[in-house]
């Protein structure tokens, strides 16, 4: 390793031309034309606006939006067995599960117990996806819908029925390579 | 000579014409600014956003006209009037066609004053009184700063503006805009007076107090400047006066440099050509507004005094030498 040589330790600084003078007028003229060309280029390119309520930006499949609860497709039984692992994993403490026993007359889920109450407070949810990871039966997954705005806080507590049903409006998915 | 009736009708037509064209330019500006910034622009009110200016005006009309305790209310009230009056008055001399263009004993201009350009300068400078008075009478700091800037800008640019048109007046041998346009039958003055044209456009931007010379407004640093304390249709009047000024400057530029009503086709098409050139000027104003940032205060002053004024004087001298020599 060579010792430090102050002569060679030079920081390269690119300075603009000195302000003022006849050259400045010339430069101002040129730069003005360059600016005009830049803005005109935007006109030719056309607008990039996504007119949101009418057209939605497609999301990636991994996008974590509104939760979904699932049923078995063949037996129509709920996958959720009310184990409350999701509620335990939730860092925002926004999931409330009250479990109840399945009976032969009233078989709701595939296991011994089912979730009598399953509520997610969407006002608190941080959409981290830990509930999805914690669930041993893949009963809860994160969907792709992000339009969750509502008029009151109580409307933002999503019940089991809401989470089991399909979302009212599907969010477009981003296609491969888009 | 025109009869009084013709003059009255012409003044009504001109006034109606401005009132119709200002909202159009307003919409055009907002739409175009959007395009220049990769946006769409207003498109919610009416089909394609065509009713946007109407919505703007209704909004302004429904607002309260308030004034601060420190204001001088009557001065505050007349300031926008001065602004809009001077702007409209200047429009009277912009020629849209020669005498007898559409048959009949009238010319397609408000009035052909023999001191045309002086008239334009006079009302252009008076227009600044609106800004200065409005800013001062508002009795607030930012308005006052805006007013001071307007005054400083006026003296920095008015001289260069005058000198830039002096070359045209000397070449045409007249101050009347109609005579000046008629003198451009062979060649538009933008060719021999190119430097004058550039100076006029720059000084014209300063005259209209629009970007990049919108220092009296300066929304970023002095919160709207002279119109900070204005609301409702008083603000709307200032706004409208600004757009009429844009039309006026574009019109004067078209008449003095771009050949006015001259163009191919019969003489009856004269107003069409004039309108086209005027609108090209307005488009240029919008384009510049979308492209250039606001100048710093000292840059504005030094540009006016150290660059534009010597250049304009030189232009006048060279023009005079060439005229005497040929």
Structural class estimated from helices and strands of chain B: mainly alpha
Q: Order the strands across the largest sheet of chain A as they lie in space.
A: 2-3-5
Rounded Rg of chain A = 29 Å
Q: Which structural category do the helix and sheet elements of chain A fall into?
A: alpha+beta
Strands of chain A, count: 5
Helical content class of chain A: 10-25%
Overall, the morphology of chain B is: globular
The largest inter-chain interface, given as chain pair and residues per side, is: A-B, 15 and 15 residues
* Fraction of residues in β-strands of chain A: 5-15%
Protein model, in words:
The complex is a heterodimer of chains A (178) and B (326). Helices cover 22% and strands 13% of the residues of chain A. Chain A is built from four helices and five strands, in the order αβαββαββα. With 326 residues, chain B is mainly alpha-helical. Chain B has eleven helices and two strands; from the N terminus they run αααββαααααααα. Chain B has helices spanning 4-36, 52-61, 73-91, 116-137, 141-172, 177-183, 194-208, 219-222, 232-256, 270-291, 297-325; strands at residues 97-99, 107-108. In chain B, strands 1-2 form a two-stranded antiparallel ribbon. In chain B, β1 and β2 form a beta hairpin.
Task: Give a quick precis of the structure.
The complex is a heterodimer of chains A (178) and B (326). Chain A is α+β, with helices and mostly antiparallel strands and 178 residues long. Chain A contains 4 helices and 5 strands, in the order αβαββαββα.
Write out key terms for the chains shown.
heterodimer, A: 178 residues, alpha+beta, Alpha-Beta Plaits, 3-stranded antiparallel beta sheet, two-stranded antiparallel ribbon, B: 326 residues, mainly alpha, 11 helices, 2 strands, globular
SSE blueprint:
The complex is a heterodimer of chains A (178) and B (326).
Chain A: H1 22-45, E1 67-69, H2 85-89, E2 95-101, E3 113-121, H3 130-134, E4 140-142, E5 157-158, H4 160-164
Antiparallel strand pairs in A: 1-4, 2-3, 3-5
Chain B: H1 4-36, H2 52-61, H3 73-91, E1 97-99, E2 107-108, H4 116-137, H5 141-172, H6 177-183, H7 194-208, H8 219-222, H9 232-256, H10 270-291, H11 297-325
Antiparallel strand pairs in B: 1-2
Helix pairs in contact in B: 1-10, 2-9, 3-4, 3-9, 4-5, 5-7, 5-11, 7-9, 7-11, 9-10
């Amino acid at each position: 390793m060579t010792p430090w040589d102050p002569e060679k330790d030079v920081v390269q600084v690119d300075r603009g031309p000195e302000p003022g003078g006849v050259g400045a007028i010339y430069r101002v003229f040129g730069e003005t034309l360059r600016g005009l060309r830049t803005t005109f280029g935007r006109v030719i390119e056309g607008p990039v606006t996504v007119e949101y309520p009418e057209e939605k930006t497609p999301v990636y499949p991994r996008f974590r939006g509104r939760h979904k609860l699932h049923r078995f497709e063949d037996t129509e039984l709920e996958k959720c067995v009310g184990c409350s692992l999701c509620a335990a994993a939730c860092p925002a403490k926004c999931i409330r599960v009250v479990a109840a026993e399945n009976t032969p007359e009233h078989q709701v889920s595939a296991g011994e117990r089912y979730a009598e109450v399953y509520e997610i407070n969407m006002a608190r949810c941080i959409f981290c996806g830990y509930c999805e990871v914690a669930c041993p039966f893949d009963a809860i997954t994160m969907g792709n819908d992000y339009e969750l705005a509502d008029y009151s806080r109580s409307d933002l507590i999503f019940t089991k029925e809401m989470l089991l049903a399909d979302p009212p409006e599907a969010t477009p998915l981003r296609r491969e390579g888009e | 000579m025109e009869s009084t009736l013709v003059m009255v009708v012409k003044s009504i037509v001109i006034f109606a014409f401005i009132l119709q064209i200002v909202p159009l330019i307003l919409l055009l500006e907002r739409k175009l600014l959007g395009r220049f910034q990769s946006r769409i622009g207003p498109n919610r009110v009416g089909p394609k956003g065509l009713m946007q200016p109407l919505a703007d005006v209704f909004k302004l009309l429904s607002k309260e006209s308030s004034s601060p305790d420190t204001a001088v209310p009557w001065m505050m009230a007349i300031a926008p009037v001065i602004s809009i009056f001077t702007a409209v008055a200047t429009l009277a001399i912009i020629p849209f066609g020669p005498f007898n263009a559409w048959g009949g004993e009238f010319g397609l201009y408000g009035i052909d004053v023999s001191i045309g350009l002086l008239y334009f300068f006079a009302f252009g400078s008076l227009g600044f009184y609106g800004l200065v008075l409005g800013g001062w009478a508002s009795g607030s700091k930012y308005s006052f700063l805006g007013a001071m800037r307007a005054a400083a800008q006026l003296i920095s640019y008015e001289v260069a503006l005058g000198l830039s048109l002096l070359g045209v007046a000397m070449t045409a041998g007249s101050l009347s805009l109609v005579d000046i346009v008629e003198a451009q039958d062979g060649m538009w003055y933008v060719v021999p007076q190119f430097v004058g044209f550039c100076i006029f456009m720059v000084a014209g931007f300063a005259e209209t107090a629009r970007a990049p010379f919108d220092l009296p407004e300066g929304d970023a640093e002095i919160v709207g400047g002279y119109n900070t304390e204005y609301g409702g249709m008083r603000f709307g009047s200032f706004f409208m006066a600004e757009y009429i000024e844009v039309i006026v400057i574009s019109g004067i530029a078209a008449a003095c440099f771009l050949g006015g009503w001259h163009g191919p086709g019969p003489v009856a098409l004269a107003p069409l050509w004039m309108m086209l050139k005027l609108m090209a000027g307005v488009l240029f104003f919008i384009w510049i507004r979308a492209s250039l940032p606001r100048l710093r205060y000292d840059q504005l002053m030094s540009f006016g005094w150290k660059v534009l004024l010597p250049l304009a004087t030189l232009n006048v001298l060279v023009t005079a030498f060439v005229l005497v020599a040929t």
